[in-house]
Amino acid sequence: MPERIMFTMGDIACAEGALSAGCRYFGGYPITPATEIAEWMSIRMPQLGGAYVQYEDEIASITSVIGASWAGVKAMTATSGPGVSLMLEAVGLAAMTETPLVLVNIMRGGPSTGQPTRGQQGDIMQAKWGSHGDYQIIALTPASVQEMFDQTVQAFNLAEQYRVPVFVLADETVGHMREKLIIPDEKDLKIVERKKPTVPPEEYLPFKPDDNLVPPMAIFGSGYQFYATGLTHDQRGYPSDKEDVQIELINRLNQKILRNADKIIDLERFQLDDADVAVIAYGTPSRSAKRAIREAREQGLRVGLLRLKTVWPFPERIVADLATEVKHIIVAEQNMGQIYHMVRASAGTTPVHLMPKPAGMPQLPGEILDKIKEVVS
Amino acid sequence: MVATEKVLAHPMAKFMRTDRLPWIYCPGCSIGIVTNMIARAIESLGIDFNKVVIVSGIGCTGRVSGYFKTGTFHTTHGRAIAFAEGVKIANPELEVIVVSGDGDIAAIGGNHLIHACRRNIDITVVCVNNFNYGMTGGQFGPTTEHERYTQTSPQPIGNIEWPFNLVKLAASSGATFVARWTAVQVRRATKSIEKGIAKKGFSFIEIVGACPTSYGRRNRLGDSVAMHRHLLEVADIQNGLPPHEAELEYDSRIVCGEFVDIEKPEYTEVLKAAHEKLRK
Q1: Is A133 on the interface with B (CB under 8 A)?
Q2: Which residue in B20, B52, B54, B91 has the most chain A C-beta atoms within 10 A of its own C-beta, making it the best mutation to test that interface?
Q3: Cβ B73–A67 below 8 Å, yes or no?
Q4: Residues of B in contact with A74 (CB under 8 A)
Q5: Inter-chain CB pairs, A–B, below 8 Å
Q6: Which residues of chain B make contact with A47, given a CB cutoff of 8 A?
Q7: Residue ranges of the domains in chain B?
Q8: Is A149 on the interface with B (CB under 8 A)?
Q9: Which of A56, A73, A137, B141 has its CB surrounded by the most CB atoms within 10 Å?
Q10: Which pLDDT score, from 0 to 100, does residue B3 have?
């Protein structure tokens, strides 16, 4: 398909990104403010020979996505906080069975039913720590309609490459804003497919990693036999209660992401080169921060922005380096302070100032500018 | 001396991961019999075993999938049917069989069961009903009879709750093939599993089994042989009986047979028709 230009909302850009990435299975349950993704998929999926399936709840939705992925089809679900809370059981299963999938969370106000039509960024820690046990996921934080498309494509690529659930964590404002979207010509899009086994079926060990710590993945019906289980398993996939098997598996599930963190992490550095103060933000507050920084620069203040496009794995080393270059770090996020704790843990002795806001309207540019002035004075 | 003893392989061993044997089941458990039924049904139908996918949830019966030597998956508790739906819709060429227990299918997974029946997706569910949660030591579940004793429904009252009748539940939820047999009616049950697999639609086959280790012991139902003999004695074969009359009273009468076998457009076929319509 040649390049297309649309004026559309973030949720629809996300759906189009998934389709461009090759997603042909959507399992979901309606929820504000992610419903437009489901609606768009219900129209577009059948046109492309794919399936939009509406389940009885979010648990079935994401579990079916795991099934579709093992049947060899790129698969996703989209929901919001209350739905994610239900899906976390399956996030653990997907992490444990190393299932590529994409989970879009259009974040609304919480906790509980919260404010369904108001944006927030309260689910950052939930995405990382929500299911029980030690595992890694990848989480991307788009800040525009174009990035809803681009980063959803990227989410599928990362999911396939690392065999891991990838979250797209977009606040409601990004999900519902309307902007210009350029859908590139399909031949200009970089699409990554999962690695298939190359050994004959009788030699295949389903959880034997390659040198990147990721095992090649057989699918149902391919002639390869395998047992995938949420139980701790050895390289054959067989359950084990042995300590060494548990330690080896858990280390690998973590290291396959952490060791490749530099390749996974994407961010934007804006006017940071000579900055005394760095603002760290993602999603909608990062848009306010950019404007605040432009205004601060006009007033002669040396301020820059580190905009996180990947929050998990967290760019610890990049923040640590930044902390040696600036005198102050301001974290502006639409919650009571979540990534703030990661920044503090990485920033050494550099003061980290939190601008929390657990509500729908993001920090305004003027508020961020005032905070910048406050910390430099 | 060189060993010359000839080892006879079980005729169904070709379908099994024999390197995983012996399996985890207690002596006298019915689940091994049901595993054999599924293998025999696959053999008898002559379907390509590479295209068969076997999915289980959690629990004793939840371990069945892991013993089959094909594409198999062990989901979280109750989610086997939801997983299976995703597999079947993503690749309708696959023959998807779910085998799990009463607690997995009808309690924590009950919502998925009734909605999969309603959706009419072409998967076959074999549910082993042994009236309790065996894996965790024998607690009451969604099919435990009123006043029965379990680890969590102790004497003197026993189970305060009332059981689901799984045949009635599946039939009223829209399943297109519904049958019930006991674990001792192997040939009849195998035939129904075959029909369920061959059926283009959602099939539900309940196999009433014995858990002598937990349920049998607590309710003084005898050892494994006694329990299985009892199942044969109280089995009342009533093929074609309206499903709402398919009663199950452990002590006196377990109505067995095929109760539903109807035709209804199947989900993946309707979806395929939609694809073709949109292509024109």
Answers
A1: no
A2: B91
A3: yes
A4: none
A5: 133
A6: 278
A7: 24-279
A8: no
A9: B141
A10: 61
**Nearest-by-Cβ selection for A68 from B65, B72, B90:** B90
Nearest to A221 among B20, B91, B271 (CB): B91
Instruction: Name the class of domain B24-279.
Output: alpha beta
Where exactly are the structural domains of chain A?
Answer: 4-188, 267-376
Domains A4-188 and A267-376 share a fold: yes
Q: What pLDDT, in 10s, does the model give residues B119-177? A: 999 999 999 999 999 999 999 999 999 999 999 999 999 999 999 999 999 999 999 99
CATH architecture of A4-188: 3-Layer(aba) Sandwich (3.40)
- Reduced 3-state DSSP string for chain A: CCCEEEEEEHHHHHHHHHHHHCCCEEEECCCCCCHHHHHHHHHHHHHCCCEEEECCCHHHHHHHHHHHHHCCCCEEEEECHHHHHHHHHHHHHHHHHCCCEEEEEEEEECCCCCEEEEECCCCHHHHHHCCCCCCCCEEECCCCHHHHHHHHHHHHHHHHHHCCEEEEEEEHHHHHCEEEEEECCHHHCCCCCCCCCCCCHHHCCCCCCCCCCCCCCCCCCCCCCEEEECCCECCCCCECCCHHHHHHHHHHHHHHHHCCHHHHCCEEEECCCCCCEEEEECCHHHHHHHHHHHHHHHCCCCEEEEEECEEECCCHHHHHHHHHHCCEEEEEECCCCCHHHHHHHHCCCCCEEEEECCCCCCCCHHHHHHHHHHHHC
Identify the architecture of domain A267-376 in CATH: 3-Layer(aba) Sandwich (3.40)
pLDDT digits (tens, 9 = 90+) for A99-130: 999 999 999 999 999 999 999 999 999 999 99
ipTM of the complex: 0.97
